[in-house]
UniProtKB/TrEMBL annotation:
PANTHER family: OS04G0167600 PROTEIN, OS07G0183000 PROTEIN-RELATED. Residues 79-346 form the KIB1-4 beta-propeller domain. This is KIB1-4 beta-propeller domain-containing protein. It holds the Pfam family Beta-prop_KIB1-4.
Length: 410
């Protein structure tokens, strides 16, 4: 008698259909739009082809943000989608009177003339205000800035006369760049600010009522030029590649400089980014006795006992996105239309004047570097009219907001 339930269960298993394929496509689309995070989306898409069709990866393709007019009341911004070469625009009123000083996890960091910071998700229009700025930021910078009649002023480099600090001055006076540990609405996000001409950093917890900025001495002897978030910690990096590991997640923030650690020889850093828990460096190397250069990719486990840089010749299916305007880059799995094992660099036209394939090009171009051999090719994407400025930054769209997915990219 005891064997009958077993035989019945076996028959039920044999008759059981694959529920991942029998549900209607519309239901899978509904489920995909309620995924709480990008990690869940990745797992969802890995199950089978039908599930991938319900959540197209094209919704998360990186875009290049082009220059905008901060005085425009409607905040019209143009984006360039590299995968299909198309431009599209969005109205982002939150950009009025602000300048971009960071791009992390699909969120932009914005600063205004009062040196107040706001975080904006350009694809959901969600915003988060960061704590107000005070004069402590001016005191830790080599720049002389004071508050006068409710406005920030600083002496002119030419004659020393005090002049009002305008919007275009903010990145050179206060916040050069802001980096996030996670999406701004994740509930545990920390923002760290790279202060102009300072060896200190400032950090705050995002979305905490009554929060404030905390200053942290990194222990480095030179000014910090870049901040990268890696393995739940922030890495403060100087112009010559010295690094301090900043742990600000606990009750007592700490900073520990990495000892006896130098950049590879003859390199000029372009951008830093974290890939799979390791710090990566995109840099140029000038050939001895020549005016030409090649672009290379290096990586390092800065948390190792004796960290050392090693050249990367195979980044697998990864595509790395970097720009001149912001020091922190992005990395992600290759999608259709993007070259894998490659670096896309958006920088000044003057950066490629020594390459025959670029120096006569009148357009703004993207440099595409083959990681395997360091060779570059150039992709013209926008006409350079009357000295028009370069692109602002790359954005890896993060369409999650309040636990729901909003697919709003054109």
């Amino acid at each position: 008698m005891a064997a009958q339930p077993c035989r019945r269960s076996q028959r039920l298993l044999e008759q059981k259909q694959d529920w991942s394929t029998i549900l209607p496509h519309e239901l899978w689309e509904l489920i995909s739009k309620r995924l709480p995070s990008g990690h869940d989306a990745s797992n969802f898409r890995s199950m089978c082809r039908l599930w991938r069709d319900a959540l197209p990866f094209t919704e998360f393709e990186p875009v290049l943000m082009l220059p905008f007019d901060p005085e425009s009341p409607d905040g019209v911004v143009t984006f360039y989608r590299l995968t299909d070469g198309e431009f599209f625009t969005k109205d982002l009123p939150a950009l009025h009177g602000k300048e971009v000083c960071g791009s992390s996890h699909g969120w932009l960091a914005l600063v205004d003339e009062a040196a107040c910071l706001t975080l904006l998700n350009p694809f959901t229009n969600a915003t988060v205000d960061l704590p107000p700025t005070d004069e402590r930021f001016a005191l830790v910078s080599m720049r002389t800035v004071i508050m006068l009649d409710g406005r920030w002023v600083h002496p002119s480099p030419s004659d020393g006369v005090l002049r009002e600090t305008k919007l275009g001055d903010m990145r050179e006076v206060f916040f050069h760049e802001v980096v996030l540990s996670s999406p701004a609405d994740s509930g545990n996000c920390i923002a760290m600010a790279l202060l102009t001409e300072s060896s200190e950093v400032a950090f705050c917890r995002v979305g905490v009522a009554g929060g404030s900025w905390t200053l942290l001495n990194t222990g480095l002897k030179q000014d910090i030029s870049c901040i990268v978030h890696c393995r739940s910690r922030f890495l403060a990096i100087t112009h010559d590649g010295q690094i301090s590991i900043c742990n600000v997640g606990g009750a007592t923030p700490t900073a520990r400089p990495v000892q006896s650690f130098d950049l590879p020889k003859q390199v000029n850093p372009l951008s830093y980014l974290q890939v799979n828990g390791e710090l990566h460096l995109v840099c140029t190397v000038v050939q001895p006795g020549s005016t030409t250069y090649s672009t290379r990719l290096y990586r390092c486990n800065v948390f190792a006992r004796k960290p050392v840089w090693s050249r990367v010749r195979n980044a697998g299916d990864l595509t790395l996105l970097t720009s001149h305007n912001l020091a922190v880059g992005h990395a992600g799995g290759s999608v259709s239309g993007l070259k894998k094992n490659s670096v896309y660099y958006s920088g000044h036209l003057s950066g490629c004047i020594h390459h025959d394939g670029c120096k006569h090009n009148p357009n703004h171009v993207l440099e595409i570097i083959n990681v395997a051999n360091g060779k570059s090719e150039w992709l013209p994407y926008r006409q350079n009219t009357q000295g028009s400025p370069e692109a602002i930054c790359w954005i890896m769209p993060n369409p999650w907001t309040q636990g729901l997915l909003r697919l709003v990219i054109p």
